[in-house]
Amino acid sequence: MKKSLTYFTAIVLLLSWFLFGSKKLSWFLKIQAEKSSEPCEFQTIFNFGDSNSDTGSMSAAFYPASLPYGETFFHEGAGRSSDGRLIIDFIAKHLGLPMLSAYINSIGTTYRHGANFAAGSSTIMRQNKNYFDGGSPFTLEIQIGQFIQFKSRTGKFFTKENESSFGKHFPKPEDFSKAIYTFDIGQNDMTDVISKMGKEDSHVLISNIVELFSKQVQSLYFFGAKTFWIHNTGPIGCLPLARPIHNAENNQTKVAGYLDQNGCVNLTNDLAKEFNKKLKDEVVKLRAQFLNASLIYVDMFSAKYELFSNANKSGFVDPSKICCGYHEDGYHVFCGSKQTINGTEIVPGSCEDPSKYISWDGVHYTEAANQWIANRIVDGSFSDPPLPISQSCQITH
Question: Which of 50, 113, 57 shows the shortest CA–CA distance to 87?
């Protein structure tokens, strides 16, 4: 794995060569290698995002999730938009930590190893939509505000006198600066940009979204965050409900260049790529601004696109297929819902074997797909710089 050397390190190496010779230099390099390979030993995760990493916020705030959601792993509704675990659940497992409790879920929760502020339908920018129109009150700005309150209140009540009892359920004050701060948000913002095509300048909208994201990261930094693990947005043009086969209102299959070689919508994916490029550029700027912080940019787009491209080889069915829900003839009955169509009540159940599907409900991923993706990002294969998540606290700039 390639390691970036800081300017200071390069100067030290040069001086070591002239002053001490090759033996001392070899010793110095060995020490540096051992230092760079040390795991970070994270004890705490704080996550921010949308339904791709929501472990119960929207379910606690509005309608509780019910079967078939959660059927594979939890065997009950567990507040997740999947049949089982999400990528953030597998990240926590990889780091040897328990699954994160949603911040606003008051029943059966523990925050000793962090909290999850992600909420379904959330965006970076504020939206003029309520929950029933597909919106969420929990924008990234609100999620950051919730974190700041969480840190302030736990710090206020955490004392040496009550450490033995209070510390069982909440992070210690020193854990906040040693925690990893993970992000998976932007997909709903890009969906909103797509809906405004032809009405507003999409390039300006995307720039504004990225700028606001940067401001929220900076807020966290000023409140002590040092390690950031930032996912870009995935190939939303590959999601089944974005494809013409399930989208009668946008059936342009025969238009040249509308779809790519994998059946994904080019325009939608191109906008996601633009967002990702600007996001990566902003992460680079933040690294230059905060030299004592580690900011890891994770190319989720490429990881997920690889899955869509090699579905059959990876043991999955046609990636346009949906495990749970009814999407035919222009009608959409989503997983867990029911609707009467032409006099017939439609109550779609889940497929026989969700582990064979990439898409759970047309928008979200199955547990099997989430695990497949998580296994490929935690080792740093899709990260910039290429650090595994267990070493992501290492500062390489």
Answer: 50
Q: What would the pLDDT profile of 14-29 be if each residue is shown by its tens digit? A: 444 444 444 443 433 3
3-state secondary structure of 379: coil
Percent of all residues in the chain with a pLDDT value above 90, rounded to a whole number: 75
Please give the Cα distance from 219 to 2 (Å, whole number).
31
Q: Does residue 318 have an active-site annotation?
A: no
What is the distance between the alpha carbons of residues 254 and 142, in angstroms, rounded to a whole number? 43
Sign of CA pseudo-dihedral 27, 29, 34, 35: positive
The residue from 51, 59, 136, 350 that is catalytic is 51
At 36 the three-state DSSP class reads helix
230 phi and psi, to 5 degrees? -115, 115
Pick the CATH number of 43-321+364-391 from 3.40.50.1110, 1.20.140.10, 3.30.70.360, 3.40.1440.10: 3.40.50.1110
Pairing between strand 45-49 and 114-116? parallel
Give the pLDDT confidence of 141-179 residue by residue, as tens digits: 999 999 999 999 998 888 776 777 787 889 999 999 999
* Given the residues 113, 246, 327, 364, the one annotated as active site: 364
Q: How far, in Å, CA of 314 to CA of 303, rounded?
A: 13
Q: Does the annotation mark 51 as catalytic?
A: yes
Question: Distance between the two ends of the chain, CA-based, in angstroms?
Answer: 16
Query: In the annotation, is 299 catalytic?
Result: no
Residues 21-78: tens digit of each pLDDT = 444 434 333 333 344 568 899 999 999 999 999 999 999 999 899 999 999 999 999 9
Q: Are residues 297 and 287 in contact, defined by beta-carbon separation less than 8 angstroms?
A: no
Q: Which of 136, 350, 361, 392 is catalytic?
A: 361
Rg of the chain (C-alpha set): 22
Give me the chain's average pLDDT, please.
89
User: What 3-state DSSP class applies to 48?
Assistant: strand
Residue 153, Cβ density class (10 Å: 0-12 exposed, 13-18 middle, ≥19 buried): exposed
346, two tokens: 């439609």
d(CA 20, CA 394): 27
